[in-house]
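dumping this here so i dont lose it
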């Protein structure tokens, strides 16, 4: 049950939703000179993604520091550092997605929205790591339907996806044992992954919002005389 263990570890360190809401509201207040709603949303999305990708990079570098120690340092970096790296990168991914979801008008205090953030973070992180759309057959047609899943379904899916993320991360964890190189590679990889997750989720949120608007439009029957 590697996926559930990783999911539990990430849950423990993700910030409270009220704190994330306050963070987004602070960013909004600082950008009150931008009047156009779309421009404001794009500006704030860029700030959110930049901020969390930087935090993710720092986490990647810090968790690789034990490799600088001779002998046992490499083992600590490979095992302890790898778990911490995965946990904190996903923490930043999830928090970023929750902030973006709130920015797009969704109630991130809702259980379903929180689990959806974990699923999206896991899917995109996996895709970036393996450099291919492993979930293409499963998700290309169903990705937009994920918001309609129950919280329990999203939880199970999140655990499954994070299990795959963990397996891929372990297979590539040897880089953390390389002094200096491991720090640089881990930091840059984390930054790129979180940045990619962020903009991918912005596109998903745009599609979701447009789909919901289309569903809300009343159907007008036209009669030809």
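and the seq i came up w/
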């Amino acid at each position: 049950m590697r996926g559930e263990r990783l999911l539990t570890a990430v849950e423990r360190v993700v910030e409270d939703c009220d704190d994330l809401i306050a963070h987004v509201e602070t960013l909004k207040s600082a950008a009150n000179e931008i009047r156009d709603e779309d421009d404001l949303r794009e500006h704030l999305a860029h700030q959110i993604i930049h901020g969390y990708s930087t935090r993710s990079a720092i986490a990647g570098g810090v968790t690789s520091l034990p490799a600088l120690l001779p002998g046992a340092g490499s083992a600590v970096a490979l095992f302890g550092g790898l778990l911490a790296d995965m946990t904190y990168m996903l923490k930043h991914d999830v928090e970023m997605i929750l902030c973006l979801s709130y920015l797009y008008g969704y109630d991130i205090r809702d259980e379903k929205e929180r689990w959806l953030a974990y699923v999206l973070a896991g899917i995109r992180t996996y895709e970036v790591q393996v450099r291919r759309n492993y979930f293409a057959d499963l998700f290309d047609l169903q990705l937009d339907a994920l918001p309609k899943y129950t919280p329990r379904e999203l939880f199970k899916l999140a655990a499954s996806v994070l299990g795959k993320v963990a397996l891929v991360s372990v297979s590539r964890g040897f880089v953390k044992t390389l002094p200096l190189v491991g720090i640089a590679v881990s930091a840059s990889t984390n930054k790129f992954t979180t940045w990619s997750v962020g903009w991918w989720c912005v596109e998903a949120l745009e599609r979701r919002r447009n789909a919901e608007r289309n569903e809300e439009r009343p159907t007008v029957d036209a009669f030809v005389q």
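Confidence is low (pLDDT under 50) at residues 66-80, 219-225.
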